[in-house]
């Protein structure tokens, strides 16, 4: 969770040098290369069984492709803190999509939790005169990341127990790279080739690849297999708190205001309430 929390800050640093499509391309490209080397050195096969190919194509489309597009373009327009607190609502959307896609029971607590979290987000994004304190387009892109992440969490359960995390990571990034390359080359490919190499850029991209794209996702997949989605989701609630503190310390334009604290508390209360399972009624 710490690695993912820091990623919202590292992305902002990287944007000082390159655009969002270039950053996502570099993250996915180097993650694919590293995971291919890990699999080769460990003697594991690169590709999964053909019968699971469609599942992994769907996973790759959701994450990294759709999720990273939403997150990267969103973080270009909203603060790291607001971006992370929106992503923290993913555990609330997971049971909603499980209800829609898998016909699983949907608890009333989940719906109440969604409403509470929505109120917290409204506090974060509106000014006193009810005008937006955050870019509406940025919020829209972050919502794409939230919905993609929620559906991804449901779909990953189908294969998390069938393959080791490093193989799952390779498949996701390999197919994600195929999805993403045309977009990257069309919008930012030539510009990236002309970008001057800066030490801070190399350091930031390395941190995002090693810690956020590889280690964090590795532990996430492993946690789903070991403790399950619901218990793992509780730990994701730490992300916006850690991000807010890190952004305040490392980014000059990020503030740690009373409004931010109140918004985070309300959103997290909604997330916790939505995941509370004791004798709750279902729909």
Provide structural commentary.
The chain has 283 residues and is an all-alpha fold. It has one domain (2-274). It is 75% helix and 0% strand. The protein has 13 helices and no strands. Helix 3 (53-75) runs antiparallel to helix 7 (136-156) and helix 6 runs antiparallel to helix 13. It is globular and about 55 Å long. It starts with a helix and ends in a 9-residue tail after the last helix. The relative contact order is 0.22. The model has no long low-confidence stretch (mean pLDDT 85).
Jot down its keywords.
283 residues
Q: Say how many strands there are.
A: 0
The computed structural class is mainly alpha
Helix content: over 70%
Portion of residues in beta strands equals: under 5%
Q: In total, how many domains does the architecture comprise?
A: 1
Report the C-alpha radius of gyration, rounded: 19 Å
One letter per element, helices H and strands E, the order comes to HHHHHHHHHHHHH
Instruction: Round the mean pLDDT to the nearest integer and report it.
Output: 85
TL;DR of this structure?
The chain is mainly alpha-helical and 283 residues long. The chain is built from 13 helices and no strands.
């Amino acid at each position: 969770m710490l690695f993912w929390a820091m990623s919202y800050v590292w992305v902002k640093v990287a944007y000082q040098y390159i655009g969002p499509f270039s950053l996502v391309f570099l993250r996915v490209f180097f993650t694919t290369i590293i995971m291919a080397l890990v699999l080769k050195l460990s003697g594991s096969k690169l590709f999964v069984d053909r019968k699971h190919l469609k599942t992994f194509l769907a996973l790759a489309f959701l994450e990294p492709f759709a999720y990273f597009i939403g997150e990267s373009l969103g973080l270009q327009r909203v603060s790291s803190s607001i971006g992370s607190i929106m992503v923290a609502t993913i555990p609330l959307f997971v049971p909603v999509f499980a209800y829609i896609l898998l016909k699983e029971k949907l608890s009333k607590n989940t719906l109440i939790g969604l409403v509470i979290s929505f109120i917290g987000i409204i506090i974060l994004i509106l000014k006193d005169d009810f005008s937006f304190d955050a870019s509406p387009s940025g919020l829209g892109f972050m919502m794409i990341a939230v919905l993609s992440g929620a559906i991804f969490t449901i779909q990953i359960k189908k294969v998390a127990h069938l393959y080791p995390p490093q193989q799952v990571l390779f498949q996701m990034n390999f197919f994600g790279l195929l999805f993403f390359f045309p977009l990257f080359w069309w919008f930012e490919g030539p510009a990236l080739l002309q970008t001057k190499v800066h030490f801070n850029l190399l350091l930031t991209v390395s941190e995002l690849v090693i810690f956020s794209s590889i280690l964090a996702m590795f532990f996430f997949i492993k946690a789903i297999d070991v403790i399950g989605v619901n218990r793992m989701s509780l730990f994701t609630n730490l992300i916006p708190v850690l991000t807010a503190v890190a952004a305040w310390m490392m980014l000059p334009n990020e503030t740690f205001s009373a409004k931010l604290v109140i918004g985070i508390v309300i959103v997290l209360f909604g997330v916790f309430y939505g995941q509370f399972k004791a004798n709750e009624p279902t729909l």
